[in-house]
């Protein structure tokens, strides 16, 4: 029975990966049911029962998520180009759908996103991706690595995680102006609180980019720092790197007690090796570093 369940999950995961890779293509029911190796007469009901939303709505949300990321975090693409990539026939149709979902026009969202409605809109998509088919890890997924000290520029976010998107926008704008591209300067996040603390005001994360350049600009908001070197347990995550909490919990709850290792006095952090939407969501890669003595 367990084997049958795994086969079913694997087939559904193939569908999600195909959708990620082909958001700008025609994702018709015949093709998706074929990838899942299910009858098209039953596939849409199986998909809805598994993920809690229809395949049509899932595709719509995935396309809109990619489009909203591009609007908020990339300045080079026009709204028209983003609308076309989201498979809307005209910018007006995209704008109507966008306003209906987020309460803002695409242009207004690009200038000043309302992140609260954005988070609510993608709740069903996040649930489908991360909770319906949770990722599992094993001790073989963890390696212990000696890490060199890394000089970084840091933009701190302190407070409600719902406002993190605005901090990310400032961080990306600053690093672009400083010429610190992700291909040449690594991206790190340092978690200084739980992902969901009891009080949202206690949420704390450092957004970092590796650089040895002098830090200048952003009104002093960006400061220099160092991620210290030393031994770390490293866990690589491929896919939904927007929520790394399951991977962090595995390291703390399962791997650490069985390993006999002791923690060093520095927070858990991650390096983002490839980022959505520059790559499809299923192809995003992050490595978690748990500092050890």
Structure description:
With 293 residues, this protein is of the alpha+beta class. The protein has eleven helices and eight strands. It has helices at 2-21, 29-36, 40-51, 55-73, 79-85, 91-102, 106-111, 115-121, 123-130, 164-177, 245-259, and strands at 142-147, 150-158, 187-191, 204-210, 222-227, 230-238, 269-274, 285-291. The chain has an eight-stranded antiparallel beta sheet. The chain is globular, with a radius of gyration of 20 Å. The chain starts with a helix and ends with a strand. The mean pLDDT is 90.
Which percent range describes the beta-strand content? 15-25%
Count of DSSP E strands? 8
Q: Could you give a short account of the major beta sheet?
A: 8 strands, antiparallel
What does the average pLDDT come to?
A: 90
User: What's the helix-strand series?
Assistant: HHHHHHHHHEEHEEEEHEE
CA(first)-CA(last) distance: 43 Å
Please give the count of helices: 11
User: Which of globular, elongated, flat, extended, rod-shaped describes the shape?
Assistant: globular
Can you tell me the residue ranges where pLDDT is under 50 for at least 5 consecutive residues?
A: none
Cα radius of gyration in angstroms: 20 Å
Read across the widest sheet, the strand sequence of neighbours is 1-6-8-7-3-4-2-5
Report the helical percentage. Answer: 40-55%
Name the descriptors.
44% helix; 11 helices; eight-stranded antiparallel sheet; 293 residues; 8 strands
